[in-house]
Amino acid sequence: MQQDIVDHPECVAWALALLTAADACVGRCEIDRLEELDAFRSIGVSRARFLEIAHTCRDEIGENLIGLSWLRADDLERIDRILDAVRDAQLRLLVCRLATASITADGCISDAEHRVFNHMLGHWHVHRSMVSEAIQSDSLN
Length: 141
Prior knowledge:
- The chain is mostly helical.
- Helices cover 69% and strands 0% of the residues.
- It is globular, with a radius of gyration of 13 Å.
- The mean pLDDT is 91.
């Protein structure tokens, strides 16, 4: 992903894929939940392209997060680079809303998913109440 491109559908897909793959697994239930929410159309990438990005995130980032109780500096640098490519507040909220659906789809939020989600919220200055309101106002839920 190029650093000088922001708010492009691929940037949004990378941010969402980061959360979907944070537990080093791109689960079918997570992808199915995103499909139910029409997430791929909402973010502007195909399901196939999203899966490619998610598998790359899993291999390059997610696998490094397993078994740790913190985010390491080199992981934070990569995560922040992905998050910084989404600057629009509405796109950020969309990613947070969809990420919430993705990481809860299997009925369990892993420690890695929790750490990356909390970091994303803090990095983007998004409050949980904002995500809750977005979920409640979404007609697909």
